[in-house]
Specification:
single chain, alpha+beta, two-stranded antiparallel sheet, 1 helix, disordered C terminus, DUF2292, DUF2292 domain-containing protein
């Protein structure tokens, strides 16, 4: 028999924090024996063509440079 899920204010705050400022993406919550044990955040960055970014790169939230699939291998 399944145990009822226990979600207190701490977990609600954590969930809200992971969803904050997410424009495109998903939040995967893993529950084991009625308790949240893991959360995975996947976020997508979307860009319009012609944004003045000629080399196909952008700077992500951590400040590191990352190439998209079009500029990889150049």
């Amino acid at each position: 028999m399944a145990k009822p899920l226990k979600v207190d204010d701490l977990w609600l705050t954590r969930i809200a924090g992971l969803l904050d400022d997410m424009e495109f993406g998903s939040l995967h919550i893993v529950v084991h024996e009625g308790q949240i044990v893991q959360m995975e955040r996947t976020e997508r960055k979307r860009f319009e063509n012609g944004n003045g970014n000629a080399n196909g790169r952008y700077i992500n939230e951590s400040g590191t440079r990352r190439a998209d699939s079009q500029s990889a291998g150049r």
